[in-house]
Structures are given as C-alpha cells and as structure tokens.
Amino acid sequence: MLTEPEWRAREEAHTARMRPWTGPHQARRSRGEKHPVLDFLFTYYSLPPSQLERWQPGPEVLLTGGGAARFLDRTGYVATTGGVRADPVLPPKRARMARYVVSLLEATGARPPRLNCFGLHEWAMVYRHPAEEVRHAQLPLRLGSAGTDEVVENLDIRCGHFDAFRFFTEQARPLNTVQPTRETQRDLDQPGCLHVGMDLYKWAYKLGPLVPSELLGDCFELAADIRVLDMRASPYDLSALGYSPVRIETPAGRAEYARQQAAFARRAAPLRERLITLYRGLLSATEVGSESQ
C-alpha cells in the first residue's frame, strides 16, 4: 500500500529520470530533426515518450488517497477496497504473449554469453548497398563503401538475432553463419547479443500498466546505453555527434567491443530474472482468476 505522498514522490522521480531522453527526443521531433543513435529508442521500440514518462506501480500495489482516482482513466486499473490498483489478470491474448516471453527469456538466460559477433550486423545492413539507400544515409561511412564491404567479407558474421538479421542486405545474408527466423528465436537468442539486451525494454513495456516503472526505467536505461555501443561499433562516422568509434575492424577494437558486450550481459542478467519473475507471477494470478470465475 502506498499513501498518496509516497506514490506521488515515486511518480515525480520516474518522470524526472526519463526526461533526459524523452525531452530532447520530443524537441528534435518538433524541429524535424533526426538522431541516428537515440531515435531508435522511440521508433524501433514503440512505446511513446509520454507513456515512458508516465509512472505506474505494477501489480500488487494499492494506491490510496483521493488523487488515485485518476488512474481509473487508464486501461488496466480497477477500484478496490481502500484505493486503486492495476488488475493483474491478463486477457487471453496477453497471457499467450506472456507464456512465449517467459519461455524466450528463460531459454536465453540459460545460455552462456557469446562474445564473438563484434557488432557486424550493422555492417551487414549496408553491405554492397547503394550509399543513398542505407538506413542512415545522412552519415558518412568511416571506411567508405569499399572498405566497409571488405570488412564484411574478411570477418565471420555470426548474428543469431532475427530482428537484426532481417535488416541485412540480400548480399549479406548468405555470409551469415546462421539463418535465424522468428520460429528459431528461442533457440538462438543468447545473452551476449546487444539486441537481446535492448529487447528487455520491449518485454517490459509489453506488460503495459503491470510493469513497475522502476523496472521499466532500468530496462530502458540499459537499452539506451547498449544502443550507444551498437552505433559506435557500426561502420558510420558519428564523430560530428560526439561519439568516438569502436573500431571492430581491428583486433583492439574487437577486444574492446567484447569487453563492453560482456559487461552489458552481466548488467542484463538480473533484469531478465526480474522480468521472468514478474511474468510468472502474472500468469499465476491469471490462472487463479480464471479458476475463480
């Protein structure tokens, strides 16, 4: 149970925590400006900035005080004795999603991190591609088109994450050591993958009002930090934006990438476990709720 002063303090703290990302993004969007590193957090990932800023208590938390009534204007909240809380019972479609996510997260967490992909997925997305058609055409390639292609051809591409692989150019796909699909995602996702770490944010916001904002914020901050490494190790020249490159085309750069990759895997592990616990608790509550009807 949270008193109104308690939950209002948490609400204000969460909004202030997220504003360093949401505020600049909204300002850039109003000016029609793009940011090739940070826009990803709000375009590839679909949670609007206003919802990221909005605090939510998660399940099993009773909000008291007259001000709690405004939560009833949101989907997923119910009035109960003494206050307002989020309804922990998942509708059938969301319950199916939750069962899949638990199986995916548990399978991923059971594997050791693999640290030898070196971020080549971003290079494979521009391999033998016309310069004007690459995803971030406004940015120059550090090594030029020919130099970028040479890196792809000389290093093994070992990307097992389908949502990165699906953006490879047609010429790059056969060069990958595996051919991931959506159906094989549970078999291939592994905790050393940067995109797997960023996706913890997606699995957090997929729960809507049932994820505590403190956990959502932790997953978002992890995704934001990983995204910086993801693009610093890319073939793009980001020096004009203040980002120094991780030169994965060199042995020293690959070692630096693997070191940071391992650190992110360690940071992601407890977040993954928190999400698994949350998802399993909601599935149990849903089963109990179904039996009582």
Short description:
Residues 1-15 have a biased composition (Basic and acidic residues). The chain is an all-alpha fold.
Please tag this protein with its features.
mainly alpha; 2 strands; 3-methyladenine DNA glycosylase
Write the layout of secondary structure elements.
Layout: H1 4-31, H2 40-43, H3 49-53, E1 77-80, E2 83-86, H4 92-109, H5 120-124, H6 144-154, H7 162-165, H8 185-188, H9 194-205, H10 213-232, H11 251-292
Antiparallel strand pairs: 1-2
Helix pairs in contact: 4-11, 9-10, 9-11, 10-11
Q: What can you tell me about this protein's structure?
A:
The protein is mostly helical. It has one domain (4-292). The protein has helices at 4-31, 40-43, 49-53, 92-109, 120-124, 144-154, 162-165, 185-188, 194-205, 213-232, 251-292, and strands spanning 77-80, 83-86. Strands 1-2 form a two-stranded antiparallel ribbon. A hairpin with a 2-residue loop joins strand 1 and strand 2 (83-86). The radius of gyration is 21 Å and the shape is globular.
